[in-house]
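ok so heres the complex, two chains, lmk if somethin looks off
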Amino acid sequence: MASYSTNEFKGGLKVMLDGDPCSIVENEFVKPGKGQAFNRVKLRNLKTGRVWERTFRSGESLESADVMDREMEYLYNDGEFYHFMEPETFEQHQASADAVGDAAKWLKEQDVCTVTLYNGAPLAVTPPNHVILEITDTDPGLRGDTAQGGTKPATLVTGAVVKVPLFLEIGETIKVDTRTGEYLGRAKED
Amino acid sequence: MTDTSWQPSASIEALHLRGALLADIRRFFAEREVLEVEVPVLSRRATSDPHIDSITALCNGDTAYLATSPEFGLKRLLAAGIGDCYYLGKAFREGEAGGRHNPEFTMLEWYRCGWDDRRLMIEVGELLSRVLQISQVQSLSYRELFLRELQLDPHTASEQELHDCTAREVELSFVPANRDECLDLLMSHRLEPAMGDGITLLYDFPASQAALAKVQEDATGTPVARRFEAYVGGLELANGYWELTDAEEQLRRFQADHRYRGMHKLHVYPFEERLVAALEVGMPECAGVAMGIDRLLMLAGGYASIGEVIAFPIGRA
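and the predicted structre for the whole thing:
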């Protein structure tokens, strides 16, 4: 397996640290004028999503991690696993609920997601930045409230709950930013 | 890594600031009757510093080195009787590249005859206040800073205490090899960020980090290096000494550096025996300091990385 020295560390490089695959976020070269050189590195643990800070001696190296991002279509959930398909090869992958994590509440069949593979198996799933989903439950819009511009919770078909304007009704479809969970607007009719 | 852009990475505004700063520094020294001198950038001799590497060049078929600092040339001139002098020009260090480092950089180094480190620190504060327009200057000893921030005396703490404190404060991928490595880690990770926005002049370093400074006992009887560093907003800008003038001690330190480099399988360069010869004849008692001009520009213009103040940093050079 290839390894990378601290002077090759750059944002996005995938390396192994303490047995877990990580993505380098930031690499700062630190050298006191008369002292030894260090590299102060921030890495995101791809299993847990946590960011680690670690200082290395300059010249130390880390093994590369067999991690790659692939665009895949979400197919279905069989109750235990989430199934994804690579659109060109039709190769299918099943991801555990752990790997899917919070992305689960945005997954709609046929949407294209980024699936991170580690040693060939799904490690994490990133939903599209914007999704269009139907409202399945919300309090009825109250007459006279439209001018106030308030919000109410609405449950979407995938289970996510977002804050929406008071005038929206069950059955309408809306556009949501999955990174912030914010309502962006009513979806245009196709 | 070569960048194919032909354009400078620094803005035209930053380059104007650089020109104005260099002119202001030259005025500062002209007002004080300190002479600008030039010394070789290309030399047959190299640094002996255990943690600095020289860039190797080929000159007339022989190995030569790009100067890591103008120190040896300036000291030979001091021994020859040049008097107060400064160098403002390029220096080179192998392997140093990052947000605050470029292998080729601009260095200011000056010497004041008859002064000690404390007197020179005042002048460093004056120059920094002038070019950065900062009036707040704090002077404190290396020990005071460690006591204030970590409740640890860097000179008397046991090796175990230093290791424990480092392990507590810094997430490391390795075990520090010795006291100095612990101290360097604490300094760069914990103390520099705690220094505040003003000018900080830090003095009386551990004797083990003396480099080319005199070592003397402080008021508590601890031997300390008469060395100081200047920081602004936690960014290391300058390193100064009450200069070692003892030829025998200089030779011992060169030899110790060579042994260290040999033991740690680092490249061993030919050391500057002509500096020892100059000290044998006699160099005036003096204090000297080196300052990083690119970093000074970063501070003066509020730039976050060194590439924003150098027209063509190494990737585009």
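quick notes: The domain at 130-186 of chain A is CATH 2.40.50.140 (OB fold (Dihydrolipoamide Acetyltransferase, E2P)). thats all i got rn
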